[in-house]
Specification:
174 residues; 67% helix; globular
């Protein structure tokens, strides 16, 4: 992928997607990797590591760290158990999938034919994993500060909504 070259991915080019996520990659290959599902990598005979799973692993850790630090600073009286429950609700699959939908991540994913035909572009698990992979890619490309800036565009609003709705841990209540 040449620098500055437009790459069309399912009717959305990388430059347009970078505008949506408010981050421009120095290494566009990291963004492509973040958007590459294992089904696509398997079908195109890429190596087992040429999909977004490793970036997802990194992004998950970065997301947990950034959200935990934010919550620690902004909820000084909240006990550890409540912090843990609230963080889990904020970074859960459903929340991350919704953020992915708002950014149009599903339209950009590189999926194998099977995932494509069974609705993979709208599947929560795939969207949430891609959201974390994008965080991992931003971290690798621009460092922890860039990843934190990206995360902080979404998380405070998400936390405020959950707290204003009277966050409930229904599983514990049950």
């Amino acid at each position: 992928c040449g620098k500055g070259r437009r790459i069309n991915m399912n009717h959305l080019n990388l430059e347009e997607f970078e505008r949506k996520i408010a981050y421009t990659f120095s290494d566009k290959n990291l963004l492509i990797l973040a958007l590459t599902h294992s089904s696509y990598a398997n079908e195109t005979k890429k190596g087992s590591h040429e999909n977004n799973e490793r970036l997802e692993f990194l992004g998950d850790a970065v997301l947990d760290m950034v959200v935990s630090e934010y919550m620690y600073r902004h909820f000084p009286k909240m006990p550890e158990g409540e912090l843990t429950k609230l963080r889990a609700a904020v970074v859960c699959e459903g929340s991350l999938a919704e953020l992915s939908r708002k950014l149009g991540v599903g339209r950009c994913l590189l999926l194998g034919k099977g995932e494509e035909s069974t609705g993979g572009r709208s599947r929560d698990s795939i969207l949430a994993d891609a959201f974390e992979a994008i965080i991992g890619a931003i971290c690798m490309d621009g460092g922890m500060e860039a990843a934190e800036r990206h995360i902080m565009r979404f998380i405070p609003k998400n936390l405020e909504q959950r707290e204003s709705l009277g966050f409930r841990d229904y599983k514990t209540a049950l």
